[in-house]
Structure formats: structure tokens, C-alpha cells
Specification:
It is a single chain. The chain is of the alpha/beta class and 385 residues long. It has two domains: 125 residues, Lyase, Ornithine Decarboxylase, Chain A, domain 1, CATH 2.40.37; 229 residues, TIM Barrel, CATH 3.20.20.10. Strands 1, 10, 11, 12, 13, 14, 15, 16 and 17 form a nine-stranded mixed sheet that branches. The chain has an eight-stranded parallel sheet with strand order 2-9-8-7-6-5-4-3. α5 packs across α6. The protein is globular and about 70 Å long.
Length: 385
Amino acid sequence: MNAAPDPSRDRFAGLVGQGVAAIDTPALVIDLDTMERNLHRMADFCRARGLRLRPHAKMHKCADLAKLQMQHGAVGVCVQKIGEALALAAQGVSDIYISNEVIDPHKLARLAHAVRAGGTRFAIAVDSALGVQRLADALAHAGVAHPQAIDVFVEIDVGHGRCGAAPGEAALALARAVQAQRTLRFTGLQAYHGSAQHRRSVAERRDTIAQAAQAVAQTKALIEAAGIAVPLVTGAGTGTFVHEAASGLWGELQAGSYLFMDADYAANTADADAPAFEHALFVKAQVMSRAAELAVIDAGHKSHAIDSGPPRVWQPEGLDCGGISDEHAVLRGAHLPTLGDTVWLIPGHCDPTVNLHDVMVGVRGGLVSGRVERLLRVDARGALG
């Protein structure tokens, strides 16, 4: 029996090998040349400092890109959801860390069955004794009996005020709880300061991570004094990774957005020691209506996320984007494009923008004269559980 046609993919059928002009709008487009420069720059940064790179695949949600990152030195990838992990594992991604807490027994059961099936190395974060116990119970119910079946990181709150146990004694208690479970392996500390990523000045980000480092150092020393090894501290993001790297405490970096670079990250003042990442992810749109003082394009909420503000107009230059609704956005400026003209947008926030699309169109040779080289499926789109 033939599968039902997939309109989202059929829209791009036969596109490989054609010029950029053939890409239907709105579409999510990757400049592959730029993306690969970003890929190499981050890999080189980590390699030069002896750091592990585990980029966040919740950003691109694409197994092919996860594998590409691992081919260029990443030890594996991070995700935030069981569903994301299983979607990528099903496509052959071999090392996945769920850098988030999971409490629901049904979700943990899905993970436990994947652990039992083998083929992918999994890790997960915990910040409560209940989370530790439910993880161990799920493994037992799935028939996972071999020792240290899954790596477990204890997450500590290093200042973001979201998930994580309190630094110090609370984290030590959780490390002991993990060690008490035969099927769990205490692997270290998860220490991520999310809000620090978008503090605009270098000084703000540096000082915030310095405070986070104090919590990490205190907690690590306390756990080690109790006779428990802390093999690894993992965390960091595209906005702060140079500071975690300089601390000597973090051994693994989880930056993800560097690969595409959205408008919000680009608004940060650049760190002198950071590689120069370039915009590689764009929404291709076109002008569908025109008035004397404005142009309307066919890319609205359904094409790009605006939680970090409206997209930036990349080409043509000198335009502002606003008036965004489901299917439309309004452009204003001195030199407006005409009906049918192409407009390239840089998303404000790449992660939720990617989650709006089934396919990313990979272009080689630039946005003007390049050609479509490949279609990249967003394998973990909508994997919310």
C-alpha cells in the first residue's frame, strides 16, 4: 500500500539541482557554505582547548545535521525532550543527552525501552529524588538490568532560576541517590545559565558566568569530598561558551545556535575570544501586495517565531519588518521591493522557527546565484513530549 503523499515535501519535489529562484515561498533555507564555516569554527575552538562539544540539536531537530556535527568532532548532541531524543535515535544518531528533567512515568518508559533496544547511548538530567527513582523504576519495568545503563547528570541551578537542585548539599544528596541505583551512572553536573545567553554586553555575560562558576566549583568540591567522582561538568550556550571554556570547570559545551545564528544572538556584543559566526538560516519570502508606503510579504507567524522579536530583513537592505500576522508581514523603508520580489529574513529565534517547518532547503553557492544541494528533514518537529 502506497503511503499518502506528503504535501510539505511535494512542494519541494525535484528542487535539488535547481537555482534559488525555484524555491517556493515561504521556505526555510540554509546557506550551506556559511553553516559549514560556523561548524568548523566551533569545532576548532573546542579542539584547541581540549573541550568536548555536544551541540544542542533542539535547535535544528535534524538527524542529518546532528550526524554532520558528530563527523566534525562533536561527541554527541543534546535535546530537551524524550520525543526529540527518540526521533533522532530512530534516524541513527548514536549519542544523545536529554539535558532536561523528565518526571512522567510514561515518558520515562519510552526512554527505558530505547535504552533496552540499544544502538544509541543516552544520558539524562535529574534535579529531584523522585526523578531519580522514577528513572530507575522505568528501567526496571522495561527489563533493563545491566549496571550503569544510562548516564545521569545532576542539574544545579546556577542562577537562571528555572530547573536544577540548589548547589551544595542538595546536589550531593542527588549524586548519592543516583549512585545508589544499580542501573544509573552518575556522570557529573549539568550547569546551564539560560538567561545569561542574551545579556547584551560582554561584561554582563562574563560576570554572570563567573557567579555560576562559583556554584559549580563549590558543588563539585563537596561531592568529591564525599568520595564521589565528578567526571564532567556540562553546559554553556552560544552566548556564553567562551566564559565557561575559560573557567577550567566546564569540560563540555552545549552551544547550538552557533550553527545558524539568529537575529537575537547577533544582537549581543561579540566576545573577542569567540569565533565569528555568520547568519546561515533564512526564511525566503516574496512580496504579495504593495502600497505606496509598504510592501506585504507571504511569511508571517506560521513561518518564523517572534518570541525574540521580529525577523531582521537581510535582503533587500534598509527595510524594517513588522505588522506580523499569521500569513503576512509588513515591510517599510525608503526603497521598497515590488510585487513578486524575493525577500530574505533572518529569524529572531532559530529554534522555534525550525519547529514550524518540515523541511529545510540547503543551498550551495549563496542566496543569489546558488543552487539547491539537499533537503534536510526536521525529524523532531513537534516532538514535545
